[in-house]
Amino acid sequence: MGSVEASNLPENSRVATVGGEPYEKVPHDLYIPPDALEVFLESFEGPLDLLLYLIRHQNLSIIDIPVLKITQQYIEYITLMQHLKLELAAEYLVMAAMLAEIKSNVLLPREAKERAADEEDPRAELIRRLQEYEQFKLAAHSIDQYPRIGRDNYQATVDAGIDDLQKTLPTLELSSLTKAFEEVLKRVGRDSHHMVKREKLSVRDRMASILKSLGDKPRVFGYFCNVHEGRQGVVVSFLAILELSKDGLIELVQIDTYTGIWLKAIVA
Amino acid sequence: MNSKDIIEAALFAVNKPIPLKELRGIFLNDESVSVSQIQADLSQIEQEYVDKPLELMQVAGGYRFQVRAKYSPWIRRLWQEKPVKYSKALLETLAVIVYQQPVTRAEIEKVRGVSVSTSIIRTLEERCWIVACGYKEVPGRPMQYKTTKAFLNDLNLSNLAELPPLASLDEWLSI
């Protein structure tokens, strides 16, 4: 991130407004071109990253952090972030609180005895975390440097032509084809539905045709039982004859038991 | 036919690394081709390709031929899409998993100081670089993650020890 020298700026120009307060001077080591500021701040991977940047940028050692100075700068940054309405992750505020706590610990007067017992520098935890984070930050960078398949290296292969060899097609006998076809037909037969169709034989039609065929000469009952019409035809004829008889249009005559039944039209 | 040529052919025929054992397998019961013979053949093949744009590489999954990295500026133009450039956040997350595996999300978050985004974990899983490898026996039984063999293969590594150790504390003290 390139920084512009304060001397390049027009005199007396307001550099920024932070928290409603105009900044007449570029904060020390804090000038970033305004357009880039948002991108710049968003490029931090979190509070540890920002803190590391602040420390490294001033060639300070992590081990020897000037807590006050760093805390002030850190708070300046997150104030800028808030001012730019950047979504300020809670982690940044937690870190600000942690820095303030460390500073207050450093300032607190302590009994000499107590200090001896509690030897640990209040900064120790922060230093440890910063060191650990920087290790992984560097490791991430070095992992990214490794040549990577699909980015730097490409696996070399040739077409071995094996696919064609392996797919030798099985031979097919004509007989097995016809047999398969037969099987299919059989299955189709089994699956076919039995459609029940009402045959178009009406009693009334039959009555008319019987009367017509009787004319003036009597006919035996069997004459009207057409074999081709099957059971239904016989039933229809029988019903038609009963109907005609009931209406008094024909006469049924049987000469003797077990002999043929004769039908005779009654002429009105 | 000599075993070296057969091995060379086999390495080109398959588009993934072939383990040594599998290379031995293609010679069936041929006792004359021992594992050490195959290793000797492999190093001879490697020598033969020293001046070629291809190189024989040993990675975690075995041996493979690949295009040398220096040709990638041209080769990658054969693909319409540019290779993915991973974010700093993703690389840092990966680095923590690499060096501290098996590791939970909370542990990654502790090191990085920010929450781990689900999309980063998913991207790494989809790339087959990390896998969930069970639960940590602590309250909540969080999922643990580790890196895969595919990660080593893709980074031209045969094992994790090939990665540089994390910079030691002594180095920090000297800064």
Strand elements of chain B, count = 5
What structural class should be given to the helix and strand makeup of chain B? alpha+beta
Low-pLDDT segments, ≥5 res of chain A? 1-13
Overall spatial form of chain A = elongated
Helix amount of chain B, in percent? 40-55%
Biggest sheet details of chain A: 3 strands, antiparallel
Brief characterization of the structure:
The complex is a heterodimer of chains A (268) and B (175). Chain A is mainly alpha-helical. Helices cover 50% and strands 7% of the residues of chain A.
Give structural notes.
The complex is a heterodimer of chains A (268) and B (175). Chain A is mainly α. Chain A has helices at residues 34-42, 47-57, 67-83, 90-107, 112-117, 124-145, 162-166, 174-191, 203-214, 230-246, and strands at 16-18, 21-23, 154-155, 219-220, 250-254, 261-265. In chain A, the strands form two sheets. A three-stranded antiparallel β-sheet of chain A has the order 4-6-5, with helices on one face. In chain A, strands 1-2 form a two-stranded antiparallel sheet. The longest helix of chain A is centred in the middle third of the chain and has 22 residues, at 124-145. Chain A is elongated and about 145 Å long. Chain A starts with 15 loop residues before the first strand and ends with a strand. With 175 residues, chain B is α+β, with helices and mostly antiparallel strands. Helix content of chain B is 44%, strand content 14%. Chain B is built from nine helices and five strands; from the N terminus they run H-H-H-E-E-H-H-E-H-H-E-E-H-H. In chain B, the strands form two sheets. In chain B, strands 3-5-4 form a three-stranded antiparallel β-sheet. A two-stranded antiparallel ribbon of chain B has the order 1-2. In chain B, strand 1 (54-59) and strand 2 (62-67) form a beta hairpin. The longest helix of chain B is centred in the first third of the chain and has 14 residues, at 35-48. Chain B is globular. Chain B starts with a helix and ends with a helix. The model of chain B has no long low-confidence stretch (mean pLDDT 88).
